[in-house]
TrEMBL record:
InterPro entries: Cation/H_exchanger_TM (IPR006153), Na+/solute_symporter_sf (IPR038770), NAD(P)-bd_dom_sf (IPR036291), RCK_C (IPR006037), RCK_C_sf (IPR036721), RCK_N (IPR003148), Znf_RING/FYVE/PHD (IPR013083), Znf_UBP (IPR001607). GO terms for molecular function: antiporter activity; monoatomic cation transmembrane transporter activity; zinc ion binding. GO terms for biological process: potassium ion transport; proton transmembrane transport. Residues 588-672 form the RCK C-terminal domain. The keyword Ubl conjugation does not apply. Keywords: Ion transport, Membrane, Potassium, Potassium transport, Transmembrane, Transmembrane helix, Transport. Belongs to the monovalent cation:proton antiporter 2 (CPA2) transporter (TC 2.A.37) family. Its main location: membrane. The chain crosses the membrane at residues 6-27, 34-54, 60-80, 92-115, 121-141, 153-176, 182-203, 224-257, 269-288, 300-324, 366-386. This is Glutathione-regulated potassium-efflux system.
Amino acid sequence: MYLFASAAPPFLQEIVVLIAAGALVAYVGHRFRLVPIVGFLLAGALIGPNSLGLVKDQELVNSAAELGVILLLFSIGLEFSLEKLTRLKKLLFGGGGLQVGLASVGMMGLLMLFGVAWRPALFTGFLVALSSTAIVLKLLGDRGETSSEVGQVSLGLLIFQDLAVVMMVLLVPVLSGIGDTPWHFVGAFGKALGIIVAVLVVARRLMPRLLEVVARTCSPELFLLTVIAVCFGTAYLTSLAGVSVSLGAFLAGLVVSESRFSEHAFGEILPLQILFSATFFVSVGMLLDAGFLVQHLPEVLLAIVAVLLVKVVTTGISVLALGYRAPVAVEASLLLAQVGEFSFVLERSGRKLGLFPAGIPDGSHAFIAATVMLMVFTPMLSRSGVWAGGQLKRRRQLAVAQSGPTTDEAEALASESFARFENHAIVAGYGEGARRLSRVLRGSGIPFLVTTLSPQGANEAEAEGMSVLRGDYARQRTLRVAGVQRAKLLLVVDDDASRARHVVAVARMENPTLRLVARVRMVSEVDPVRSAGADVVVCEEMEGLVAVLTSVLEDYRQSPKDIEDNEDAVRRSGYAALRQPLALEKPLLICALEEGCLSWRKVTIRPGAPVVGESVETLSARAGGALKLLELRREGEVLSHVTEHTRLEAGDELSLKGSAEAFERVAELFRAPPPEGLEAERPSTSTPPRTAAELIDTEATYEFRPRAGTGPCGHLDQLRPVRPRTRGCEECLKLHDTWVHLRLCLTCGKVGCCDDSKNKHATGHFHDTAHPLICSLEPGEQWGWCYEDKVQLEREP
């Protein structure tokens, strides 16, 4: 009866509409290949109070949206590191400071030309100077360009903008003329900066230890709650100093990224981040008043044009001032041309104190309309930036081909003599992949040089002692100075497919004997780059499968030459063997399976496995003499003298030969405790989960005699003296999973896990076999249980 007694909570309608609208928009966007952000914004405008009015509780939506921003920025912080952030310091403080200053002053000057007083004009400049961290990083992440040159520039500017919000919020009372003194502002800003530093220092020292302790509990619920507490707790602490919660969440993610549990944390919060970040974009769309937009369309369009003019010009100047090329400046300028979500917060703070955009009370409505429209058009502006940047690159390449490099470029090219290089490798660019590759090459003795146009990348490579040529490696002249005619290899690892194809074509014309290696992301990009002249095109999408294939061939004892030939065949075919939906008429993979290769296995002894410390003789005896040790490799070296008394150690790699049955017999000896990644999946219970480290004796015989007078049971005739078939839960061991308590079937000896364990294999065994009687295998426990009669049996002492 109580099921019908209570009405639905008042907020349930809003929640249902939000989630349903988000799901519908995501589906439509997927079918029509639209950017999801645009759909979420339009959905918000449609269901909001100014349109259909399906969602009326704006405060509820705003709260959910704030959670979305926090989780989005936290996840972005998880993907970064303090090392990466340190590399952005010039961008952050130099470029970011210049961009915010120019945008604020530029908008103020533009408005003052039309008679707006300097205070509201500067306030409007503050609003316009900020860009949307959530939208920009979402677009970059979806395109996989967060680590690209444009992505790094955008991130540096955005982080400084989030820092600048603190100063702007503190300045709003000063600009209103009714607030605090400038000295109070200085003190508050110093306090904010101090709290940020304190949070970073304390969190970096404590966070790895805290996560280590939590992870050892093997409770996914506790780990998730801890990560969320760190995220929201850090955001709250920084907000106490007036710092935006988004910046606090980013700092929290940055700190967690320094621990070895960052990937685990990211996986745990990703579903929440997707849900609440979608809510954020819907909530922004709800701010749009379609009626006001239609009635005041000229004013809104004028505001959009003014914002675009100021943002594109000032961002472009800031990026160029840091030494980046025009294509990067154009792409970054159009990507950051919108107004940010924190401008809404800043505008609301000013409105309470009588400050309005452009000094007009209705300016708030025009500002919101222009901001939402700019957010909607951001994906289109970003694509326009990519196109314009590509056009600039092509025009510059054509001009250089006709007239040669500029004076500055000629001086840069002539700054170092590279005539001494021969049979060397040329690393094209200094992106994330080239950076890692160069650091490996540096210690290998292989002669190489780096050529890049990035001032930041060049300075970093030179600081690490590498030979660097500052120039565009897509140009004939630059490659000649790099000694391409004498070079052995050219490595193109970070460029998009279009630029990689151009670089390969130019280099191939210069040196037909040069070995050209390029990396692309998608398999569809392989053929165009190979046709331009690349010898090897490594595809990220497929190369992981090639590594798996290599491992398979090694395990079936194919010769190194055959393995290499098969790898080359797969790559030469453009990964045809791996990407064809149907089997090829002529197989590319041909294996010569020699006699005995199927009965040969390479087994690594993992820490905690029962076989550690046992002798070779024990291993052979356990297999009934049907297992032969062919080779024992320890610490990378083959042991030359192995006897039956040799003790096995963790990390040993054994080459064994035997039947499948023999390997099955010795499987328990090699079964180690699950790795950390699986430990995290254990259920949260009052008793800590158990692993294979606490194994039971399979040689002991269990004979359960019920004490007289214990519960009536009609199935005692099924009691048998049994030996445990395995040293732990049989199914969990096969799955490399964990349990809480162990139960023994008193009819067949099957060992299963209890109902407190997540898999409940003991109960499952009863349903599969109808064996009703079990007993506990826990030390000190003397009870049994009948599933059929549902009675507990006490064991005779």
